[in-house]
Design goal:
This protein is mainly alpha-helical and about 160 residues long. The protein has one domain. It contains four helices and no strands. The radius of gyration is 33 Å and the shape is rod-shaped. The two termini are about 25 Å apart.
Length: about 160
């Protein structure tokens, strides 16, 4: 589709080029303001997102280490309790080591699930932004076309 601006300017009438320049300049100011606002909003959103992403790995490692410390501490107490009282039905050292091995193998898939959930949320937010852009009404082009057609009809008659 050909833009009507170059066609309009090619007609050679000085009043038409002044009108087109004025309309283009006023619309350009609005476009620049909207672009600056959207750019600032995007920057703040991406900064927040990247901060969370950068902190998620150290936080996850710290929390998984703390869970392992608590499990080892509690399991160690149960083992010492069973050694002090052999008749109690408590945890043996072999069973505890087996439990720690299995528990350490379960943590990475749990982390992967949380990372997958995070990626799904991020993808959903991206899809919402794309949908909002695709469903937005194009007002600027319709207004410009209306102005151009009105001016063209006025000059024609």
């Amino acid at each position: 589709m050909t833009s009507i601006g170059p066609i309009w300017l090619s007609l050679g009438h000085p009043q038409q080029s002044v009108i087109v320049s004025y309309v283009s300049a006023s619309d350009m100011e609005n476009i620049n303001k909207n672009f600056e606002k959207e750019s600032t909003d995007y920057k703040s959103i991406m900064t927040k997102l990247l901060r969370k992403k950068d902190l998620s790995s150290p936080m996850s490692e710290f929390l998984s280490t703390m869970v392992m410390v608590v499990v080892i501490w509690y399991g160690g107490n149960l083992i010492f309790e069973s050694q002090d009282n052999p008749t109690s039905n408590s945890l043996s050292p072999q069973a505890f080591i087996g439990f720690i091995v299995i528990f350490s193998q379960i943590l990475p898939p749990i982390k992967s699930l949380s990372q997958g959930y995070y990626n799904i949320q991020r993808g959903s937010a991206s899809a919402q932004r794309i949908t909002a852009i695709l469903e937005a009404e194009i007002e600027v082009k319709e207004k410009l076309l209306k102005h151009f057609l009105t001016l063209f009809e006025a000059i024609k008659s």
